[in-house]
């Protein structure tokens, strides 16, 4: 059994894990920028990097869950998401849910499952 783990800056967890042709990644804005558009963009850059570390990319996304601290920000997040995700062939199954993200600065977390390519 070969499990690849990309450890997080935070103790006790990984930013990415790959196993058996699948990649599991969590993305967030490591800089906690001001505003949902900036945090979404930074989270997606982070996601790109972590997917690459485990041999995947946005074109291989299968499932995505976007967690927002405030669902009234969904439309602004979607603007950035839709620009980033690209053509229909890249679109994963996606859900967006409101969640308490644990502090007053984190506005978004993105959790994905992707195929390794």
Q: What does this protein structure show overall?
A:
This protein has 117 residues and is α+β, with helices and mostly antiparallel strands. It has a single domain (4-115), classed as RutC-like (60s Ribosomal Protein L30, Chain: A, 2-Layer Sandwich). Helix content is 26%, strand content 33%. It has a 6-stranded mixed β-sheet with strand order 1-2-3-6-4-5. It starts with a strand and ends with a strand.
How do the helices and strands line up, and which of them pair or pack?
Blueprint: E1 4-7, E2 14-19, E3 22-28, H1 36-53, E4 61-68, H2 74-85, E5 93-98, E6 108-115
Parallel strand pairs: 4-5
Antiparallel strand pairs: 1-2, 2-3, 3-6, 4-6
Helix pairs in contact: 1-2
Report the total helices: 2
User: Topology as H/E string?
Assistant: EEEHEHEE
Number of domains: 1
The CATH topology assignment is 60s Ribosomal Protein L30, Chain: A
Q: Which outline best applies?
A: globular
Number of strands: 6
């Amino acid at each position: 059994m070969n499990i690849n783990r990309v450890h997080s800056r935070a103790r006790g967890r990984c930013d990415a894990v790959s196993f058996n042709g699948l990649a599991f990644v969590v993305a967030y804005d490591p800089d906690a920028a001001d505003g949902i558009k900036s945090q979404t963009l930074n989270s997606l850059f982070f996601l790109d990097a972590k997917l690459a570390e485990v041999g995947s990319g946005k074109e291989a996304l299968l499932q995505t869950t976007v967690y927002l601290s405030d669902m009234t920000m969904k439309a602004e997040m979607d603007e950035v998401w839709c620009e980033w995700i690209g053509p229909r062939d890249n679109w994963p199954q996606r859900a967006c849910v409101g969640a308490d993200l644990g502090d007053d600065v984190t506005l978004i977390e993105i959790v994905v499952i992707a195929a390794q390519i």
